């Protein structure tokens, strides 16, 4: 169960929990293939149920959610994207784009059977403009690829989420990470887009040109068209030194469920106070011995005061450990696999989310229920449950 929350004011928490079951059953069934002749006539590389690679071409990352498409198109040019959209319109089919194929809900394959999948692997690009400081990208560019490209070549960073193999086009609908409280999400940093619309036309949009489309793409791009290019802001790190910290119950402690609830409520109390600092990221792991882990983007000296204000709100049996590193080293901790650009194996799981707004924070009863249904819930022998709470908010991520 993933929980993520937002509000018109500052959002306090994003709650996440995951129920994973070993094994799974692949979806089966026929798919409409009438669109195949139109795509082939347009000269577009196509995969159909009769294609030898069909099973691989339509394999979702979360095998629990496996919609069966009608066809998969592989456009090589913007013009072929337009042609494929026209074919789908003529056939009365919905269209979805596939980037990195690392979606919890298999969004790249559509919500229901029968969609046309637009695999954008041939339109992948990544380019930085040193004059404007903007990064241009499209297609299945992974977070790890974009982050490595910016750091290795320009010593700059970009807003991103915490899964290295998630596509940058997918996280453009949100993309909350450890720097989001200070720099915003990917969505907050989009400057312009290039979009193929349902009628096949291709347009550019920003705050001044096609501003209504630009507004819609930032959060609902899949309802607007096929985004061929994003341009986003990049940043110098807020600090070259980063403090990685962990707060946990001491080794001899045997915390009760109420102790864990107190830790979560205490974290929330700090988040609602004037001591809340947007250079701190916090991920609260829902366990029978819960932990807080995150980063302070500054020196150990500056971090001391911030952590002291947080610790006074937590149970006395919790202890703080810290480690200072350079910025890029901290990225490999916050986003494991970002340096090696590793791919996460396929999974079979259920995930959901909820956002806790500032105006209706958790209380003891709701926090107790959260733990009762995650860390302290009965588990099946072949299943595991996990979850976490992220502090959101900040200047941008409201």
UniProtKB/TrEMBL annotation:
<dbReference type="InterPro" id="IPR016166">
    <property type="entry name" value="FAD-bd_PCMH"/>
</dbReference>
<dbReference type="GO" id="GO:0071949">
    <property type="term" value="F:FAD binding"/>
</dbReference>
<keyword id="KW-0285">Flavoprotein</keyword>
<dbReference type="InterPro" id="IPR050416">
    <property type="entry name" value="FAD-linked_Oxidoreductase"/>
</dbReference>
<feature type="signal peptide">
    <location>
        <begin position="1"/>
        <end position="27"/>
    </location>
</feature>
<keyword id="KW-0560">Oxidoreductase</keyword>
<dbReference type="GO" id="GO:0016491">
    <property type="term" value="F:oxidoreductase activity"/>
</dbReference>
<feature type="domain" description="FAD-binding PCMH-type">
    <location>
        <begin position="65"/>
        <end position="237"/>
    </location>
</feature>
<keyword id="KW-0274">FAD</keyword>
<protein>
    <recommendedName>
        <fullName>FAD-binding PCMH-type domain-containing protein</fullName>
    </recommendedName>
</protein>
<dbReference type="InterPro" id="IPR016167">
    <property type="entry name" value="FAD-bd_PCMH_sub1"/>
</dbReference>
<comment type="similarity">
    <text>Belongs to the oxygen-dependent FAD-linked oxidoreductase family.</text>
</comment>
<dbReference type="Pfam" id="PF01565">
    <property type="entry name" value="FAD_binding_4"/>
</dbReference>
<dbReference type="InterPro" id="IPR006094">
    <property type="entry name" value="Oxid_FAD_bind_N"/>
</dbReference>
<keyword id="KW-0732">Signal</keyword>
<dbReference type="InterPro" id="IPR016169">
    <property type="entry name" value="FAD-bd_PCMH_sub2"/>
</dbReference>
<dbReference type="InterPro" id="IPR036318">
    <property type="entry name" value="FAD-bd_PCMH-like_sf"/>
</dbReference>
